[in-house]
Amino acid sequence: MSVASFAAGISIESAKIPSPPAIRSKDTVPDGSPRAQDPSVDLEMYSMSNIERAPSILRNNSLRAASVRGSTEADPPSNSPPENASEQIQTMWAPYKNRYRVLACCATGFGNGLNDSSQGALIASMERYYNVTYGTVSIIFVCNALGFIAAAFFINAASTKFGRAKTLVIGQSLLMLGYSCIIITPPFPAVCVSFFVLGLGMATNLAIAQVFCSNLANNTALLGFFQGAYGIGGVTGPLIATALVSHGSKWSRFYIIELCLAFANLLFSAWAFWNYEKESTESDPALPVPTSAPNSPQPRRATTARKWQSFKTLLSDTPTILGACFIFAYQGAEVAISGWVISFLVQFRHGDPSKVGFVTSGFWAGITLGRLTLSFLAHSLGERPSVFLFTAGALVLELLVWFVPSIPGDSVAVAFSGLLLGPVYPCAVHIFQRLIPRNMQISSLSLIGSVGSSGGAMAPFMTGMLAQRVGTFVLHPICIGLFGAMAVTWWALPDPEKRDE
């Protein structure tokens, strides 16, 4: 029992002092959870067993209790674990439904990869259908990135208020709305709006899945599986889209597959994550907000101030900012290579478009294989040195593609570049999860994913604009510069503290 709860039952004005309540064991609190005890508090409680105290002593104790109550309203000591307690981390197998939750995360990752990779294969058909240039049709990338950025401002609040299951339902519903609009082949402005809505839904899937997988034991491998599922979608998307278009189907019919997959993911992810908060030993991570008086005369103004303070707290977190810059460069290089290497091989290596078109699938296959295999190696060697090695290797391979005039050699180099870039993302998320406080992870990873998607839109967009003027060879210096930015931001990240699992 704390001093505050004891003093609450004493009336100073009354001349008759009632008997104190029974003293509980010093090793437990009302909710039964163990906690470290304050020796001074215990001595005071036992000394108070003699209720014939002088009024001055009671008054002093009441004042002390009031001050303790004010300090414990925001952080009750009864809920505080011992300082030397080991943090309990869930695994993929415990609780039992975690295995289905990991599978649901992988299913949503597959859907995201299917959507992202198919756009490159469908752009030519969209240009012909709407009679627009590449610069115009590339607006869909920008709109998709804007959806990711906008989602960063509500995902954390939605997860805290509704829980992860209902937040995933919202995300899948947004995807179904966007795909339904595209399927009917509306005017091009409506397609751009639909890609914005798709960005909202995909960002929701990405944030919830990454935070869940990164807080499980052996998270580097699990994040590798999640990103590997994304890569499998990346390999499958262009093949399906190309097959449909080559057989005369309208480009928009591809999204019927995406609509069905989003509906299946809605049902499965809602079932898998239902009652997740009740099973978890901790509440959902939420961005911390400063405490305010409950009887504030201006609650709306206070709420706005708390949100602004929370946003400033997020932007002042060094790992979040450096992580966002790192993922911006990473996804920019990844999407730029995927979208422009074929054009480079056609223009400067005089390749046949019908044959070199499979180089993109080889790149995504390398990413998938790297995430499913090299993620385990990176976890054994250490994520920080592994990312430096993978980035340096990808830079060397990019130089080979640039200067070696051989289509077979360039194709192999592009595939191996994807192999080395594959495990970089799960390794990075593992480090971010250890550097960012748990109560900020959903907001921080949402912001990192949003900024990364912006890189995935801006880098290929700028590559296309420059390619129209000087040629597609600009892909290589842009990617080399992005690899350098990755190395600098990764070096600037602080070393994470080790955590007992």
For the record, the CATH architecture of the largest domain stands as Up-down Bundle
Report the principal-axis shape. globular
In CATH, the homologous superfamily of the largest domain goes by the name MFS general substrate transporter like domains
Q: What's the total count of β strands?
A: 0
Protein name: Bypass of stop codon 6
Domain Major facilitator superfamily (MFS) profile: 101-499
Region (Disordered): 17-45, 66-87, 282-302
GO cellular component, one term: membrane
How would you describe the overall organization of this protein?
The chain is mainly alpha-helical and 501 residues long. The chain has 2 domains: 3-67, no CATH class; 98-284 and 315-492, Growth Hormone, Chain: A. 72% of the residues lie in helices and 0% in strands. It is built from 21 helices and no strands. Helix 9 runs antiparallel to helix 10 and helix 17 (383-403) packs antiparallel against helix 18 (407-421).
Describe the structure concisely.
With 501 residues, this protein is mostly helical. Helices cover 72% and strands 0% of the residues. It has 21 helices and no strands.
Lay out the secondary structure:
Blueprint: H1 3-7, H2 39-47, H3 55-72, H4 98-130, H5 134-137, H6 139-151, H7 155-162, H8 164-183, H9 188-214, H10 219-246, H11 255-273, H12 276-279, H13 299-315, H14 318-348, H15 353-356, H16 358-381, H17 383-403, H18 407-421, H19 424-435, H20 441-470, H21 475-492
Helix pairs in contact: 4-9, 4-10, 4-11, 6-9, 6-20, 7-8, 8-9, 8-11, 9-10, 9-20, 10-16, 10-19, 14-16, 14-18, 14-19, 14-20, 14-21, 16-17, 16-18, 16-19, 17-18, 17-19, 17-21
